Amino acid sequence: MADLPSHTAVGGVLSQVASALERLSVETTPVALLAAAARELRERLGSRAVVVSRREGERLREVACSLHENQSDRTTFSDYAYLLSDYPVTQRVLDTGRPAAFSLHDTDIDPNEAFVLREMRMDAVLMTALPAGGDVWGLVEIYDTGVRRFDADEVALADFFVRQVGALLVGLEHTESVQRLYRETLASLANALEAKDSYTHDHTQEVVGLTLDVGRALGLDDTELDVLELGALFHDIGKIRVPEAILNKPGPLDDEEWGVMRRHTVAGESILAPITSLRAVLPIVRSSHERWDGRGYPDGLVGRQIPLGARIVAVCDAYRAMIERRSYREPMTQREALGELRDNAGTQFDPECVRALLSVLVTRGSDEEQVPLHRPAHAA
Predict the structure, then answer these.
(1) Looking at the DSSP assignment, which residues form a beta bridge with residue 81?
(2) Model pTM greater than 0.90?
(3) Which long-range CB contacts under 8 A does 298-302 form with residues at least 24 apart?
(4) Scanning 70, 168, 247, 253, which has the fewest C-beta atoms within 10 Å of its C-beta?
(5) Residue 373 within any structural domain of the chain
(6) SS3 152
(7) Which domain holds residue 233?
(8) How far is the C-alpha of 175 from the C-alpha of 151, rounded, in Å?
(9) Domain count of the chain?
């Protein structure tokens, strides 16, 4: 590990690093942590940009950055990947764990590394490896314009700070791993429905995926998306208490059967209520069958009285139900289902959620392309 600077050339190093790390410790996801760390490092070193990239085999992919306000027009590589074999200095930093700094003004600068500086509209860069859990997770690049030579104190500060960020990153990634395991365990509860209702498992997974896409389209943050994901996963868990004869009836339900079916949202709420970590999910489960016009169940909520997560789940659940085969009817075509969504926006569904779902479905219809490599012309 690099030593801290031996004097105060960078100014109050220990207190700065301690304060910065304290601020970073409140972040709850790896991406948020790295974005905040990039900002802190840029401000501490007075640089123009800090870019954090993740190593993916023999490639690097940008995952976070912080830009000085005057650099907002710089070329972004977040939609590209770097092939490490094209960039020997970058490769060496990752392989050895030793920082490196160079400038366009160096006579011996590698032409491919110079290519990146020019593309970034920068003149100098300090690179340091980002370790996490004994492995090299990625790379942190600190850029500046003009003639700048990163001195030994600045290199040591950057390397020390990045290593502490790596330690925080390990903790967050471990937490995410535990949360994934926890969700998979909880999902087994939802999958218990599959034994009673043959379509439910695939239907639920499709609803979860759509719901997350719609939530992102509506600007929900990571915490809200986590709650939304679990709400979508468990929105029909109460059907465990509905008799199979009703769930799989090959025809319309009568009034008494509908009464039983309508109680499944309250049943789902009561099933999940003892699990403290799912408290935020309960309103979605209870209200996922409310209607925008107030004619839904169980509470007859109207418009924005209905939790946003429940409104999103309702429209995604209805769309998937329309295009899937049921024991009592054939599936609709996608065109027919989209028509139903439009016709019922403002009555059954939140119009904003319908618009977001339609946008998501259009995007999903586009062919996804592989992430292109950003390479120097002669290397490509």
Answers:
(1) 373
(2) no
(3) 298/262, 298/263, 298/265, 298/266
(4) 70
(5) no
(6) helix
(7) 183-364
(8) 36
(9) 2
- Same domain for 275 and 349, yes or no, is yes
Collapsing DSSP to helix, strand or coil, 26 comes out as coil
Query: Residues near 378 by Cβ (< 8 Å), separated by ≥ 6?
Result: none
Give residues with Cβ within 8 angstroms of 19, minimum separation 6. none
Which of 150, 172, 194 terminates a domain? The answer is 172
Place of tokens 């903790």: 171
Distance CA 176, CA 31 (A): 12
Q: Are 360 and 307 contained in the same domain? A: yes
With a CB cutoff of 8 Å and minimum separation 6, the contacts of 275 are: none
Q: Give the per-residue SS3 of 332-349.
A: CCHHHHHHHHHHHECCCE
> Along the 380 residues of the chain, how does pLDDT read in single tens digits?
444 444 444 445 556 667 777 788 778 788 888 999 999 999 888 899 999 999 988 999 898 989 887 655 555 556 678 899 999 999 999 999 999 999 999 999 999 999 989 888 899 999 999 998 888 999 999 999 888 889 888 898 889 889 989 988 888 777 666 566 566 656 656 655 554 555 554 677 788 899 999 999 999 998 899 899 989 988 888 887 888 788 778 778 888 988 998 899 998 898 888 777 788 999 999 999 999 999 999 999 999 999 999 999 999 999 998 988 776 678 888 889 999 999 999 999 999 999 999 999 887 764 344 456 767 766 65
Same domain, 113 and 221: no
Contact between residue 127 and residue 105 where contact means Cβ atoms under 8 Å apart: no
Written as six digits, the tokens of 280 are: 């935020």
The domain that contains 238 carries what CATH number? 1.10.3210.10
